[in-house]
Design a protein that fits this description.
76% helix, 258 residues, 2% strand
């Protein structure tokens, strides 16, 4: 192998590492924020790839002359990064689902504020809990864990030797199904409080016929909902950490199936 072929081989190997790293910048929380400029994302992906490249396992040591097959390898590497990032984003999907339930019960069904995490419009409750979830994700070193998971993925599936087994889609579907149960658990404390207030307001309306329930009930539910939301932040943090631990185990399960 002459010097030019060796140079092309190293470029091909680095491209595989780079595209696996770039996968988390497509969908992973924090890394995929729309507020982050694309140049910054590309620079971070390049920097992480340069740091991982000397210590990663590469499956092939000969030049890939068939560029069509090389593009397929790039697609597989990108899919690995997307799978890792998608698993982390499921955690924030549960937070979003619970926040939407709680926001509608508090009376924020028509209120919409731009969510800085997803770039979409959502209720103020979604924005608040989304920011809290981001701080918790950084506090538990979730961003470090994503990079560690990328590094571990090369041990189970060296660059250029990725095979996606049938168990991976089944596991991802199972993880998506847990979004609803976790989201309900996150919203449950304040949600139950608001349900009780709604029932009590109905009883009061039956006892006092001249009372305008809509005028009195809306600010009451809003105020109690905000109080309940603040009081249940420790519970929210506990559930977030517990679910994050489960996500870590699920990611390791998926890496073993690559």
């Amino acid at each position: 192998m002459n010097l030019s072929d060796l140079y092309v081989l190293k470029v091909q190997q680095f491209c595989l590492v780079f595209f696996r790293v770039a996968g988390i910048f497509i969908i992973a929380p924090v890394f995929s924020q729309q507020q982050m400029p694309r140049r910054i994302k590309a620079a971070l992906a390049l920097f992480i790839s340069l740091a991982l490249f000397p210590v990663t396992r590469i499956a092939f040591t000969s030049l890939r002359e068939n560029w069509g097959l090389f593009v397929v390898d790039i697609g597989r590497e990108l899919m690995v990064g997307i799978i890792i990032g998608y698993c982390a984003s499921i955690l924030f999907g549960a937070v979003q689902f619970g926040s939407q339930l709680l926001g509608r019960q508090m009376g924020f069904g028509l209120a919409r504020i731009l969510d800085p995490l997803s770039g979409q419009q959502g209720s103020p409750v979604l924005q608040f809990q989304g920011l809290v979830a981001t701080l918790l994700f950084l506090a538990v070193n979730g961003h470090h864990w994503l990079i560690i998971a990328l590094n571990r993925s090369f041990d189970f599936a060296p660059a250029g030797n990725v095979t996606l087994s049938a168990a991976i889609p089944n596991k991802l579907i199972e993880m998506v199904g847990s979004v609803f149960s976790v989201g309900i658990r996150i919203a449950a404390p304040a949600f139950v409080l608001l349900i009780i207030v709604t029932i009590l307001m109905g009883v009061v309306a039956r006892a006092v016929s001249g009372m305008n329930v809509l005028i009195v009930g809306l600010p009451l539910r809003l105020g109690l909902g905000l109080i309940g939301l603040l009081l249940t932040v420790p519970v929210f943090g506990l559930l977030f950490r517990r679910f994050f631990t489960i996500i870590q185990k699920d990611v390791m399960y998926l890496l073993h199936r690559l």
